[in-house]
Amino acid sequence: MSQGTLRRHDRDEVRALVNLMWKDxxxxxxFSNAYSIDVxxxxxxxxxxxxxxxxxxxxxxxxxxxLHGTASVRSCARKGTKYVVGxxxxxxxxxxxxxxxxxxx
Length: 105
Fold this sequence. Notes:
Blueprint: E1 12-13, E2 17-23, E3 29-39, E4 43-48, E5 57-62, E6 67-79, E7 82-89
């Protein structure tokens, strides 16, 4: 855990395309492309074009991050013309950053 924060895991700034799918309050499936802002072992913040209700479940697909599964929306706040959602991974999904590539001499 980082000093001075209540977070269980450190966040890494990672910008990657994330595909999201969720159901709105009427049960209609919604799809959106988003971009991750930062990612930790247990969740991520992402920038989306429309609000997603808190406590909704979303299906995540982020090939660059090797993430495929579900997450719960923990927060959603407007930022300019977009929204920033805080997602907590569920069903055992965890982000494992790729180790840095060794330098070639």
